[in-house]
């Protein structure tokens, strides 16, 4: 088994690769040593470099880096837990098999668990820049589609039960990952549990997501054909272009789009919000293959240390990104002695809000037009002020730009 070829094939042409994998006799040690360990190391090492070497920005604090020892500890634990996680998830898949008319087979269960993680591990490279680490969520969700395709082939699950089998396996996997992420977060000195700890997965929604992911799979297969043709021709530039198109298929859902100009986004940020004056404003554009992001951010403050930061991010008409990152699959209403957190929809737009009852910090985020993410963070202000600041960008104006630059 060639690691590079296997990773490429399971990601780009899973429908033809799963039968090949099903026919292989691979022992546990070889699978972990030659495939799982090298790929699982990517997000662990990249996260260490991103958090402890490159560093990241924190509002009101500035650019910081995790202590090297803390970073190394978190890196090692993340790597070890990734290995343990694959094994435990394979046990879950095997144990659930009879409930969905599948055949129990520990060896095949381990293979379907391990290879389904491939996109998430490869996308771990985005952790080099913490601001882009959310892109790993998209690749991880593509892994759900790989699991959906693999269960009927390796576990002999009836096709009509594959969706339910996938959904239950994912729910159990999320529980395992929540436990792991909480432990890692405790060691790292911060909460690193991320979105997974807030997700409520429902079978019907998983089915819809799988439909979208299947479309992504078809686009990736088409991109892979172009890569093979370019490789045979010996045209390296054509091969590189095909490779970036494949990346775009993962992150951009096949849509070719130009992001809204950063200056146009900056123009949506007003000079004042209530009694807060704009203290700074900036914009940037980032491109990675065919996937592009434009962002504008402004900070508002007054003399009493009331501060608000508003960020508008354009994902460039990447409909798959918008669909999968949307909180449409997530619901939450959690309250503690210190604050509350909610996920849901307002006027059809996925939202997320979090607030500390002492008024020290709060945030409100939502997805507009399937492509624009508006994030608002406040310090020493109430949630009403935060939501007012968010709405000040003009959701209707963003909605009107949702098809700007999009080419199907």
From TrEMBL:
Query: Which ranges does the record mark as transmembrane?
Result: 35-56, 68-93, 121-151, 163-187
Q: Which organism is it from?
A: Undibacterium pigrum
Q: Where is the Yip1 domain?
A: 14-179
Q: How does it sit in the membrane?
A: Multi-pass membrane protein
Q: Name one GO cellular component term.
A: membrane
Q: Which residues form a coiled coil?
A: 213-240
- Keywords of this protein's UniProt record, alphabetized? Coiled coil, Membrane, Transmembrane, Transmembrane helix
| Official protein name in the record | Yip1 domain-containing protein
Q: Which domain of life is it from?
A: Bacteria
Cellular compartment(s)? Membrane
Pfam families from the UniProt entry: Yip1
Major place of localization? Answer: membrane
The record's annotation in InterPro entries points to: Yip1_dom
């Amino acid at each position: 088994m060639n690691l590079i070829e296997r990773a490429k094939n399971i990601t780009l042409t899973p429908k033809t690769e799963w039968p090949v994998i099903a026919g292989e006799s691979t022992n546990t040690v070889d699978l972990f040593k030659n495939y799982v360990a090298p790929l699982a190391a990517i997000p662990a090492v990249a996260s260490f470099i991103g958090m402890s070497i490159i560093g990241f920005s924190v509002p009101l604090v500035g650019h910081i880096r995790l202590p090297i020892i803390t970073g190394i500890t978190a890196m090692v634990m993340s790597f070890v837990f990734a290995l343990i996680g694959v094994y435990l998830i394979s046990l879950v898949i095997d144990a659930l098999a009879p409930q969905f008319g599948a055949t129990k087979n520990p060896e095949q269960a381990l293979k379907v668990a391990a290879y389904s993680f491939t996109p998430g591990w490869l996308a771990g490279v985005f952790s080099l820049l913490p601001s882009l680490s959310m892109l790993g969520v998209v690749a991880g969700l593509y892994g759900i589609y790989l699991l959906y395709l693999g269960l009927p082939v390796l576990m002999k699950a009836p096709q009509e039960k594959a969706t339910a089998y996938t959904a239950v396996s994912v729910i159990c996997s999320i529980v395992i990952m929540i436990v792991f992420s909480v432990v890692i977060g405790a060691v790292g000195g911060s909460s690193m549990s991320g979105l997974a700890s807030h997700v409520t997965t429902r079978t019907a929604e998983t089915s819809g997501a799988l439909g979208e992911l299947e479309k992504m799979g078809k686009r990736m297969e088409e991109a892979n054909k172009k890569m093979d043709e370019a490789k045979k021709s010996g045209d390296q530039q054509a091969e590189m272009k095909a490779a970036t198109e494949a990346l775009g298929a993962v992150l951009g859902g096949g849509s070719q789009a130009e992001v809204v100009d950063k200056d146009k986004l900056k123009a949506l940020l007003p000079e004042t919000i209530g009694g807060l004056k704009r203290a700074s404003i900036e914009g940037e554009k980032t491109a990675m293959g065919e996937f592009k992001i434009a962002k504008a951010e402004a900070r508002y403050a007054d003399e009493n240390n009331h501060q608000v930061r508003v960020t508008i991010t354009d994902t460039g008409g990447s409909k798959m990104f918008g669909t999968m990152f949307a909180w449409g699959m997530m619901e939450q209403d959690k309250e503690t002695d210190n604050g509350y957190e909610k996920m849901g929809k307002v006027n059809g737009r996925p939202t997320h809000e979090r607030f500390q009852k002492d008024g020290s910090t709060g945030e409100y985020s939502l997805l507009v037009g399937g492509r624009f993410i508006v994030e608002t963070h406040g310090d020493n202000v109430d949630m009403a002020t935060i939501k007012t600041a968010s709405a000040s960008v003009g959701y209707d104006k963003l909605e009107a730009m949702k098809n700007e630059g999009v080419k199907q």
